[in-house]
Amino acid sequence: METLTKIFSLSLILASFRFATPLILAALGGIFSERSGVVNIALEGMMLFGAFAAVYGSASTGNPWIGVLYSMIAGLSFAAILALVCVTFKANQIVVATGINIFASGITIFLLQVLFGVKGTSPMVNRLPAFRIFDVRFNPITYIALILVPVAWFILFKTHWGLRIRSVGEHPAAADTLGINVNKLRFISVLISGVLAGLAGAHLSIGDGSAFVREMSAGRGFIALAAMIFGKWHPFGAFGAAMLFGFAEAVAVRVDFAFIPSELISAIPYVLTLVVLAGFFGKSTPPAASGEPYYKGEK
Amino acid sequence: MPREDNYILDMQDITKIFPGVKANDNVNLSIKGGEIHALVGENGAGKTTLMNVLYGLYEPDGGQIFYEGNEVDLDGPEDAIKLGIGMVHQHFMLVEPLTVTENIVLGSEPRSGLMLDQKTAQKDVKEISEKYGLFVDPEAKIQDISVGMQQRVEIIKTLYRGAELLIFDEPTAVLTPQEIDELFDIFKSLKEQGKTIIFITHKLKEVKTISDRITVLRSGKSIDTVNTEDVTKEDVAELMVGRQVLLEVEKTEANPGEEIFKIENLNVNDNRELPAVKDISLSVKKGEILGIAGVEGNGQSELIEAITGLRKIKSGKFELRGKDITNFNAREIKREKVAHIPEDRQKRGLIMDFDLKENIILGYHDLEPFSRNGIMQYDNIAQYTEDLIEKYDVRGGGMESQAKNLSGGNQQKLIVAREFSHDPEFLIASQPTRGVDVGSIEFIHNQIIDRRDDGAGVLLVSAELSEVLSLSDRIAVIFEGEIVDVLKASETDERELGKLMTGSQAEAGGESNE
Ligand SMILES: Nc1ncnc2c1ncn2[C@@H]1O[C@H](COP(=O)(O)OP(=O)(O)OP(=O)(O)O)[C@@H](O)[C@H]1O
Ligand SMILES: [Mg+2]
Question: How close B408 gets to chain A, by Cα (Å)?
């Protein structure tokens, strides 16, 4: 009986990691983007498109790693659109990102039809092999996500690129007067967020599963944003938040509470985010210039 | 071609046009290597614009720039930095949540491998800081340090980039007299090392003290370049404004009435929750100006923020006309006919993206005739704005232009216009003439004295000792959050105040308040 509970809870924790993986990746992407001053609510669409591209890559070559590559390219391409329109041409970031999300949902359904001839779910494809480390078996993307957390922290807080990214997100004019190319840095940061969101998509389709299902991102891009805010735009903070949300999801899926509908448990991330934004856990201030396009020559 | 060989910089026929404003109109400026060159002119004359062109921030619509004999094309600040041009901006260019060191090295960070080399960075900052006597706390965040220290960070930023030609846009506007002396010592040692300095100021005394040559701009045009030793302050003022200006304050003896405002045992903390104002008690009478003299960062800002309802107090009491207003919020205090010219005009005084007419009714926008039954009366507002813009001579675009497009001094005049126009009975003026040209200083000073003579009580805070001395009737000296003495303005001088302000006479005592 005791061992049973133990195994049960260990498996719950492992499941939390699996559920948290896409959240961690997309949240890290969101951090890069917002730290540089671009709000990226298109993480959702990038993730979805990435998930599709991963399946397509795996299906057409038989090699899931090519799928991973495709997913990153897919995320990158959407990010390039967002960056071009919002950073270079200074359109409203929320509007454009919302457009990308809607487009992602449409284009994946369309491509499912055209490339696979199906409506809801793609055929099964080769999935990523799981790696075993001691008792833990994760697909490689989970390990990658876990490694990327300290890497992102290192880049943002220990390198000069990180300092520059943070400065253009806070006070672009100040960075500009020091010869830093604000829009180039923002462009690159958005691209990074796209790659990470695409990778998150690959986890959903060929890491955790082996097929693409329409709308399979299911709001995880937004939960990742919540994790980013909950984690105060900090990689470790976001990791902690993503784990918490992943745990909540694992509980919702695995544990059957008689009286609590699982939908309520799925709402936990959002409720927690509201609580954080309301300031109950200390102040959570977004980068000062986040969301504002930068025009040269303004005071 | 540059006009002379010893010119390090020659700007010829520079024109820069903003929508509706010709900020620079065929301006000529030539700077000799190794000189200290003062650039003066009224608010909105185009000084900052010209320097932004030189620093590569604005692309000129016409003209040529020669640097060290070669024509240069400055596409951005990086080009200017590469040439050896550095700039300390009029409005700080600092990233608030980053540290002093991070701000200084940003853009040319020392590295070790992949890492930003914090150690070297701090060492470099410390070196420059010590070499030029510019004290900063390398690990503090910008948001936690005083305006004065932020200024020093800005100066170190240019020095760190090894600039040969340094542009200072009103560097002294935010410094104390003592700090200004120190800055000028830095100027001198920079000059000795062969560096060239262009500096903008509205203080003619400084122009006379430190500069070798002076270029005067007026309404976007370069009027004249003169050798400093050949002219008097009055000459320069006249060149700037185009008429004679009174440089001294003329005021009659105060005629103080009953007490209007009283502070009792006030204690306030700063942003870091350390005590900033310690047990201060003061009182202001009707018809008098009480000046607060002190080195910046000794609690003045926190004191004023507390009085105006912008900062929570720890303990103490405020009374206005005998009424307890201790826990009133900013708006309730305003309604008591209290006017406030805030120290930081961009953060507290204006909404930079709003236009002039919206800014000029801020805080009064819900009152008649600006608003009726909750609906803004834009016709009335427009009329009102037009009157005030004219009366207070706010230049640069009409009432529809955004506050951020005004020059610094005109932003200040806009605030003064708003605050003085509702018959204030108690006026709190923090650095009221910071960054304002000589003609407008005369105007604002006269306005303050007029309010006093109308029977208003005035609380004046200024880093400008001469301003405190010439405007105030009584002067309270603040040091490390405490009032160390209250003196009659007519019975003291800069020397005595200077000593009190730095605490060197703290125990000596004198005539105290009441
Ligand atoms: N970005 C801008 N957009 C529109 N107009 C501007 C802009 N910058 C400056 N101006 C206008 O150009 C003129 C010159 O401004 P500038 O800031 O160069 O004056 P200044 O001489 O530095 O004045 P001050 O002493 O008050 O700082 C002003 O009329 C100002 O309103
Ligand atoms: Mg200026």
Answer: 11
Please name the residues between 156 and 185 in chain A that touch chain B, using a CB distance below 8 Å. Answer: 158-160, 162-164, 166-167, 170-171, 173-180
Token code pair at residue B84: 């050896």
List the pLDDT tens digit at each of the 299 positions of chain A: 455 565 467 888 888 999 999 999 999 999 999 999 999 999 999 999 999 999 999 999 999 999 999 999 999 999 999 999 999 999 999 999 999 999 999 999 999 999 999 988 999 999 999 888 777 788 999 999 999 999 999 999 999 999 999 999 999 999 998 989 999 999 999 999 999 999 999 999 999 999 999 999 989 999 999 999 989 999 999 999 999 889 888 887 776 666 777 777 777 777 877 777 676 666 678 898 888 888 875 43
Atom 24 (ligand 1) nearest CA: B43
Ordered DSSP codes for B222-239: EEEEEEGGG--HHHHHHH
A140 has a chain B CB within 8 A of its CB: no
Whether B341 and B349 have beta carbons less than 8 Å apart is answered as yes
Q: Which of B54, B85, B95, B156 to mutate to test the interface with A (most CBs of A within 10 A)?
A: B95
Minimal Cα–Cα distance from A288 to chain B, Å?
9
Is the CB of B76 inside 8 Å of chain A's CB atoms? yes
Say if B257 is an interface residue toward chain A (CB within 8 Å): no
Residue to mutate (ligand 1; options B11, B219, B405, B443; most atoms within 8 A of CB) = B405
- A163 belongs to a structural domain: yes
Pairing of strands B165-169, B85-88: parallel
Architecture per CATH, B7-241: 3-Layer(aba) Sandwich (3.40)
Instruction: Find the residues whose C-beta lies inside 6 A of ligand 1.
Output: A 299; B 18, 21, 23, 41, 43-49, 90, 395-397, 405-410, 437
Pairing outcome for strands B457-461 and B371-372: unpaired
Ligand that comes closest to the CA of residue B49: 1
Is A5 an 8 Å CB contact of chain B?
A: no
B95 touches chain A (CB under 8 A): yes
A157 contacts A234 by C-beta, under 8 angstroms:
no
Most A CBs within 10 Å, among B106, B112, B352, B401, to test the A interface: B106
Q: Would residue A298 count as lying in a domain?
A: no
Q: How far B147 CA lies from chain A's nearest CA (Å)?
A: 16
Of B335, B428, B355, the residue nearest B397 (C-alpha): B355
Top mutation candidate among B407, B412, B443, B444 for ligand 1, by most atoms within 8 Å of CB = B407
* Extents of the domains making up chain B: 7-241, 259-356+406-501
Task: Output the domain CATH number for residue A80.
Answer: 1.10.3470
- B383: nearest Cα among B411, B402, B363, B360: B360
Domain that holds residue A48: 2-277
Q: Which fold has domain B259-356+406-501?
A: Rossmann fold (3.40.50)
- Distance CA(B290)–CA(B299), nearest Å, equals 16
Residue at A183 is within a domain: yes
CA dist list (Å): B506 to A30, B483, B510: 54, 9, 10
Measured in angstroms, the CA of A169 and the nearest CA of chain B are apart by 9
Burial class (CB in 10 A: 0-12, 13-18, 19+), A38: buried
Number of domains in chain A: 1
For the residues of A201-247, what is the DSSP string, one character each? HHIIIIIS-SS-BTTTTTTHHHHHHHHHHHTTT-HHHHHHHHHHHHH
ipTM for this prediction? 0.86
Q: For A161-201, what is each residue's pLDDT tens digit?
A: 999 999 999 999 999 989 899 999 999 999 999 999 999 99
Cα(B169) to centroid(ligand 2), Å: 7
In a domain? residue A297: no
Of B12, B312, B34, B19, the closest CA to residue B164 belongs to: B34
